């Protein structure tokens, strides 16, 4: 027998295996992601605060409707961006591909250390208050340590589910979304019953009494309402996990979830402000203490689609290694104060405004880029003008040093950018720590998964 001929290894076999994200998000999970993120802690937490800053039930409902309209227009704008740039990362990737590395790094710098941890911490604290509140008399002080421990446990459970598998995370997300929608439908039904009985007659007759005229208070009310609507752009963070990102682009799927979340928000807010006197809702500033008799305890939770903004930045080497570990657990304290001051919305709408500027730039300068969906240019212009108003109005009407602190914090990212990103300085100790954390958590960087 002759010696068998040795076959040269195929090029495919010689290539090292590449780690990519699995495309496991279908239509139902995608819509559930948007609706589930929008229908969260905010709708149970913020009707009281919107009413407090607007001064009247009618004024607060106008704010809620305007927030829903702005979220829908924002989703329309992000729809076109999702067809132009089919990468995970959301705002970061859009700014990176349009304006370059420095502004994109500032976005991920602020998102990692401030915006995302603040949102996750606030939602987990709200969940913890609802869990603990039934065991204590209404409007009495709950143990702060207990609330924080429950909030930390909530974050850990969701993080573990998200790390375990995409299917487990999406299954939990779908289950929570269905539960929250059913709970809100019960609340809405109770509100309609109150209106039918005529119990809200006096409130309806004086719906717009004492409405504030201050631009700063109106903008803070917008911040509170928009935080409840936040999540309409979260599918843009996980574009590379969609089963068919070309036919089911993130923006269009976002439009399916945004109206669902917006309509439920408006109806629940109407039930809240018309069933209860404004003085009752404003009396308790203790979050769940005022919310408990209105809504009852409603646990809210969803996985972390925001993790893909960090993964997207890390894959482009524009994310410092020491910032790649999430900060939510370390910051599960005091972030509700940040939200109440409006600083969270101030930062977030600076980011949204910059992203919308990317779309306007691409529509004017890159008209020939292939896109499967185009939004009328007036829509991103309206969103950009709204962003400018939300940024400047509280500063002009009610200037606070906190806004300056936040702006300086954003600029401090420049000091981090040049040595670590521009000059590629990697401290040996930091690299070793990153490797050990990756081994312990069994995580690794992934390749781009772009069609």
From TrEMBL:
What are the record's GO terms for cellular component?
A: membrane
What gene, per UniProt, encodes this protein? LOC110194884
What is an example of a GO molecular function annotated in this UniProt entry?
A: L-amino acid transmembrane transporter activity
**Gene3D superfamilies reported in the protein's UniProt record:** Amino acid/polyamine transporter I
Top-down, what is the taxonomic lineage of the species of origin?
A: Eukaryota, Metazoa, Chordata, Craniata, Vertebrata
Question: Keyword Nucleotide-binding on this protein?
Answer: no
UniProt KW keywords: Membrane, Transmembrane, Transmembrane helix
Q: What is this protein called?
A: B(0,+)-type amino acid transporter 1-like isoform X3
Which parts pass through the membrane? 25-45, 61-81, 135-160, 172-196, 336-362, 374-396, 402-423
Query: What InterPro entries does its record include?
Result: AA/rel_permease1, AminoAcid_Transporter
- What does the UniProt entry say about where the protein is found? Membrane
Q: How does it sit in the membrane?
A: Multi-pass membrane protein
- What's the chief localization of this chain? membrane
One Pfam family for this entry, by name?
Answer: AA_permease_2
């Amino acid at each position: 027998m002759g010696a068998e001929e040795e076959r040269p290894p195929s090029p495919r076999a010689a290539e090292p295996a590449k780690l990519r994200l699995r495309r496991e998000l279908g239509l139902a999970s995608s819509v559930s992601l948007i609706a589930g993120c929008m229908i969260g802690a905010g709708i149970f937490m913020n009707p009281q605060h919107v009413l407090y800053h607007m001064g009247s039930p009618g004024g607060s409902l106008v704010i809620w409707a305007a927030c829903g309209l702005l979220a829908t227009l924002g989703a329309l704008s992000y729809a076109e961006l999702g067809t132009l740039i089919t990468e995970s990362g959301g705002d970061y990737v859009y700014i990176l591909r349009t304006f370059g590395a420095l502004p994109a790094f500032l976005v991920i710098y602020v998102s990692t250390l401030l915006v995302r941890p603040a949102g996750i911490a606030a939602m987990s604290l709200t969940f913890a208050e609802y869990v603990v509140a039934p065991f204590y008399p209404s409007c009495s002080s709950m143990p702060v340590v207990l609330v924080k421990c429950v909030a930390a446990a909530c974050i850990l459970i969701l993080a573990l589910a998200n790390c375990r598998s995409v299917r487990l995370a999406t299954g939990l997300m779908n289950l929570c979304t269905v539960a929250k929608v059913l709970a809100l439908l019960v609340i809405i039904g109770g509100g309609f019953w109150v209106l039918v009985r005529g119990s809200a007659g006096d409130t309806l007759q004086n719906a717009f009494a004492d409405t504030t005229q201050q631009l700063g208070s109106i903008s803070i009310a917008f911040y509170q309402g928009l935080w409840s609507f936040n999540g309409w752009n979260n599918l843009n963070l996980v574009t590379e996990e969609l089963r068919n990102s070309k036919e089911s682009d993130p923006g269009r799927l976002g439009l399916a979830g945004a109206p669902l979340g917006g309509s439920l928000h408006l109806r629940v807010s109407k039930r809240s402000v018309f069933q209860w006197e404004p003085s009752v809702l404003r009396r308790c500033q203790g979050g769940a203490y005022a919310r408990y008799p209105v809504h009852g305890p409603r646990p809210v939770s969803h996985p972390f689609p925001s993790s893909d903004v960090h993964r997207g930045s890390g894959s482009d080497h524009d994310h410092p290694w020491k910032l790649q570990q999430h900060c939510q657990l370390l910051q599960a304290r005091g972030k509700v104060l940040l939200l109440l001051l409006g600083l969270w919305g101030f930062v977030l709408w600076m980011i949204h405004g910059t992203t919308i500027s990317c779309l306007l730039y691409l529509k004017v300068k890159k008209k020939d880029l292939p896109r499967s969906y185009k939004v009328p240019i007036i829509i991103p212009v309206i969103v950009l003008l709204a962003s400018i108003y939300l940024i400047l109005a509280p500063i002009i009407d009610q200037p606070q040093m906190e806004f300056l602190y936040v702006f300086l914090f954003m600029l401090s990212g420049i000091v981090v950018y040049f040595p670590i990103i521009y000059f590629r300085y990697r401290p040996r100790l930091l690299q070793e720590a990153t490797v050990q954390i990756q081994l312990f958590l069994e995580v690794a960087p992934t390749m781009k998964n772009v069609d």
